Here is the input.
Amino acid sequence: MSTNGYPDRSHLPTSPGVYIFKDAGDKVIYVGKAKNIRGRVANYFTKSGDGRPKIAELRERVSQIDFIATRTETEALVLEANLIKRHRPRFNASLKDDKSYPYIVVTTGDEYPRVFATRSAHDPRHRYFGPFPSAGSVHTTLEVLNKTFPFRKCRGPEPGRRSGVPCLNYHIGRSVAPCVGAVTKEGYEAIIADVIAFLEGRVDPLIRNRESAMRNAAREMDFERAAKLRDELSALSHVRDRQQATIASEESFDAVGAFAEGETACVQVFAVRDGQITGRDSFLLDNYGEATAESVALQFVPQYYATASVPREVLVQSGEPEEALTPLAQHLSEVRGMRVEVRRPQRGDKRRILETAVRNAELGLEHEKALEEAKRNRVASTLDALREELALPKLPVRIECYDISNTMGTNSVASMVVFQGGRPAKSEYRRFKIKTVEGADDFASMAEVIRRRLERLQADDEKFTPAPDLILLDGGKGQLSAVAPVLAEMGVGEDLPDIPLRSLAKRDEEVFEPGRPEPVVLVRNSPEMHLLQRVRDEAHRFANAYHRKLRGQAMTVSVLDELPGVGPARKKKILAHFGTPEAFLNASLTDLEAVPGLPGRVAREIHARVHR
Here is the structure.
């Protein structure tokens, strides 16, 4: 997060594409398109937003900003539509069905197919092309089709009119009039095949011809014809740009693109379903061996599909011949339960989509590295501010926090959590059972734990080194007063390194220091206050989790010990069957009756005792 509380966006690309706002739960809440992603996103975080009343609420909920770079604005528009239909974001005007997006349909289910615009539900007998950016682009494209290909324009599944006389389109060369037999069925099918090829995106030759003709018309000062060709060229460009976000067929596959730089790599998986890009996953990987992007992609694929759904086809980067990909294809086929193809496309739409995935992987790696650097700078700034506010001798890189948990003095435990460089270092967490204190005496319990921790430091126990830069207690003056003498007794600052001690009182979020009667009050929403709260809350969570575990074990053993007919052997079977005390205590009667070797009568007695 940036210092103003909003996600860092300074490292978003300036290319066209879509931007994806996510909340703290990683849920997509808004998808938008932009000619310049960074510039467009910045508008949301100005004082006035972009003028829409809900923007203030959206800003407060955004926790993460993802993006997918595209080649053109039109490609971004269609990709935006696909992602909105898939995720139904709360802040988008999500549509209930596809009717708001225009398509061109070729009625291949008819004997003599028609070609027209539609917003209706799709008929599986026909071919649909779209969605198009706007109704205007559809009608302009149809105009070009009408002038280029003489398919029939009459309505209905059967060609012709009741009079049996061909329409005006036949006389002006816009229709071959299959209604009067002016064309054979094979000849008409050839025309429709050309229409489909055009709509599938094979329009470059037509574009080149019109560009040349438009230049010639301009040179000859035939401006009317030049304007007409310009309009046709625009329509053809719409078709070509639409193909950047869709493919020529309704295939489904994943394109896995990777980019590697030094010891880090980024992999992006583009999911294409029914011919449209419907989603993208991004992964940041360690690449200590500095493998090539191709190697990273091939190593990543089996790991990814260990949990993800395997499509019929996976596109990968590979400099190897096709047969070298056979083992990977066989593995994925076994995972999917049917044949899977793994290959590197050499041309066409699939190669373009793979190249888009690779380009986004490169942008993603740049973005992640920049965010990581910004995060390090923010952490360093926060730790430095904390050092100054709490008058610490050095930067508190390693912070240890302690908390006590018990139930009326029983199963008393303590937690030690460690934050290293502002982040949880969970491998360094430790937990303690209170040994010398009877009853619910949190002050004495805290003193015992700190003494045991420092004894382990004195003994150079590798599980308790290095020394912390700050010991933080979850509590107020009482905990601090109980622990401060322990540090003096153990020789902190003499035999042991000088370790600052502070306590954080939850009621008013005040920080207490030994020998200082007045607390330090940090700015409530400052980064340094948030850091101390995170450390304290994590210590509380960890202590409670350990206490619940011990309490559950004690309850389990107690319940089992009190039951007639449950000896050591059956107790062992019950605990082995359920694995954890929580699972046993929450077990239903059916679950208990399923324990091997446990009679039904005993199972019923256990269930009655546990749930009485």
Notes: Confidence is low (pLDDT under 50) at residues 94-99.
